[in-house]
What does this fold into?
Amino acid sequence: MSDRKTLWGWYFFDWASQPYNTLLLTFIFGPYMKTLMGDGSAAQAVWGYGIGAAGVIIALASPFLGAIADRSGAKRRFLWLFSAMYVLGAAGLWWAIPGDYSLIFVLASFAIGLIGMEFATTFTNAYLPELGPRSCLGRISGSGWAFGYVGGLIALILMLTLFQANPATGRTMIGIAPLLGLDVATRADTRIVGPLTALWYAVFMIPFFLWVKDRPKPDALPIRAAMAQGWPALRATLVSLPARPSLAAWLVSSMLYRDALNGVYVFGGLYAAGVLGWSITQIGIFGLLSIIAGAVFAWAGGRADDGFGSKPVITVCLLALIAAVIGIITITPTSVFGMAVAEGSSAPDIAFFVLGCVIGGAGGALQSASRVMMVHQSPPDRITEYFGIYALSGKATAFLAPLSIGLVTSATDSQSWGITPVLVLFVAGLLLLGWVRSPQSCAPRM
It folds into this structure.
C-alpha cells in the first residue's frame, strides 16, 4: 500500500488533466469550432474526423508503449514526454483566430494534446493497484475521478468568470471585461482557453512528479531492450484473448460504450449550440452542472463499486446513459420528449440541463468503475500493458462515434439524427456486458 502523499500525488493527475476534457473537448473549444467555421453541421463533421484520426494513433501506440513501460519500469520518463505533448498541443489552440487560421494546424494542435493526455492517462492508471488493497480500489478510483471533476469545475469557473465574454456585451459571466485586455472581436477571450489549460496542467502536475515514484524493478530492462521485447509480448497477449472470453467480452463492451460516452462529451456542447442555439456562456453553465453531478456520482459510485462490484455499477450507468441520449434526441426548440411546447419556451433548455446532469453523473461513475474492473482483470506484473490494451480497446473504434456522427450528420444535414450512433454503441456495450464475469461479484456488502 502506498503512503498518503503518493495517493494525493496520483489524485493530482486527474485534477491537472481534466481541463483538457472539460474546457477543450466539451464545453469551450469544441463549441467554439461552430464560431470558427460558421456552420454547426460542418464544425461537427470536421471535429469528428479530427478526433477520430487522433484516436487511431492512440489505439495503435498505447498497448505497445505499455508493454515497454512494464519491462523497463520507466513510467515516469514516458509521462514527461506525454506531458510535453499535452502542454504544447493545448497552447497551440491560441492561434484559432476567426478568419485567420489554419484548420490543419488547429486540428493537429488539438490532436497532439489529446494524444498526450490519453497516453498519460494510460500510464497513471497503471499506478492504481499500488495505491491500496484491492478491496478499496473503487473508493480510490472514484475519489480520484471526483477530484479531477472538481479541478475541471474550478478551471471552467475561472474561464467563464474571468476570461470568456458574451460577444454581445463584451463582458464575462460576472460582468467584467476579460482579464489581460483580451480582444473579444478576435475571440481572444475564448482562444485563451488553450494556454490556460496548458498552464493549469503544468502547474498541477508538479505534486505528481514530486510524490509519485516508480517502484524499483529488479529485472528492469534498458529501454532499447524493452522495445525489442515489447511487440512479441504484446502479440502473445492479444493472441491469447480468445481463450479468455470474459476479458475479451469486457474489452469489446467497454470499447463500445466508452466510444459512445466520448461521443456524447465531444458533441454535447456543439449539439446544444447548433440545435438549441445556446451561447458559449449557456454551454458553460451546462458544463458546471454536469461536472458537479459527475464529481458527486464518481465519489458515490466508487463506494458502490467496493460494496457491490464494478459490473452492477457499470450496468446502472449504461441504462441511465441510454435513457438520457434518447431524451436528448427528442429535444428541439419547439418540443421536449416528443411533446410540442410553445415557441420561446424554456422547457427544452431545462430538459437539456437535466439530461446533461444525468450524463455527467453516470459518465463519472462509469469511467471510475471501468478502470477498477480493468485492474481486477490484469496480471499485476503487466498492469501498464493491460491498461494499454484497455486504451487500445477504447480507441480501436475511437473513430467510430465521431466518424459515424460526422457521416450521419453530413448525410441528413441534421444534428439530431447525427447523434443517434452513440445510442447504438451504448446498447451494444450493455448487451456484451452480460458475458463479463466480475471479479468483485463476491465483494462484501456495504
Summary: The first helix runs from residue 4 to 27. Residues 440-446 have pLDDT under 50 and may be disordered.
